[in-house]
Amino acid sequence: MHNTGTDGAAAKRPGGIDDLFLSLEHELAVFLRRARASSGEMAREVHPDLEPSAYGLLLRLAEAGEQRATELACYFGVGKATISRQLRALDDLGLVARQKDPADGRAVLVRLTDEGLARFTRVRSARRDRYARRLAAWDRGEIAELARLLHRLNDEQEPEQDEVQEQDEAREQGETQEDGREQG
Fold first, then answer.
1. Tell me, what DSSP letter sits at residue 12?
2. Which of 16, 40, 100, 102 would give a disulfide with 52, using CB separation of 3.0 to 4.6 Å?
3. pLDDT per residue over 30-75, tens digit each?
4. How would you classify residue 79: left for phi > 0, otherwise alpha for psi between -120 and 50, otherwise beta?
5. Coil, helix or strand for 183?
6. How confident is the model at residue 13 (pLDDT cuts 50, 70, 90)?
7. Which residues pair with 109 in a beta bridge?
């Protein structure tokens, strides 16, 4: 499919650009653009005022159950301020509820409400049906291989996400300190 030399190395364009990685970059860009659009549609199906980025929080809470906001921030590789803002919006929409953590009264657990779970489950089921229709011509082995490779790609991104989260937390800490100086 791709232009390779006799030694199996990928063909390179002038300037050392590897055709294989150009193709990968293009396909990932198209996939991510479509995924963002799909995420927005799914979020609106759950609730017209739901931000597309918050849909993933619903997915995580549906799969993992109630969690602390700090656990969610760590899982998604974002700062506490970002998660807090998204959870506040979900709470305002009645899709999540917060309660004191019985193991640590200072902490709060977040869970899907019955309404949030029902809306999310309906949209998720419709999404899975769309996947099944779109991939109906694929061999099940190909679908399994795609899932395996995507899992591997996601796993290999985690160290980068850890770095991003640390940078976000450092920036948020700096903003908090600046706010304190301005108020003081």
1. B
2. 40
3. 999 998 888 889 999 999 999 988 999 999 999 999 999 999 999 9
4. beta
5. helix
6. confident
7. 68, 99
The least confident of 28-32, 61-65, 89-93, 169-173 is: 169-173
Q: Is 108 helix (H, G, I), strand (E, B) or coil?
A: strand
Q: What are φ and ψ of residue 139, in 5° steps?
A: -70, 145
How far apart (Å, rounded) are the C-alpha atoms in residues 120 and 26? 31
Residue 76 carries which side chain, given as an amino acid letter? F
Which tokens hold the place of 131?
């996947």
Q: Which helix (H) or strand (E) holds 54?
A: none
Dist. CA 67–CA 71, nearest whole Å: 6
Q: Which residues of 33-43 are buried (b: 16+ CB within 10 A; e: fewer)?
A: eeeeeebeebb
Residues 98, 90: contact at Cβ < 8 Å? no
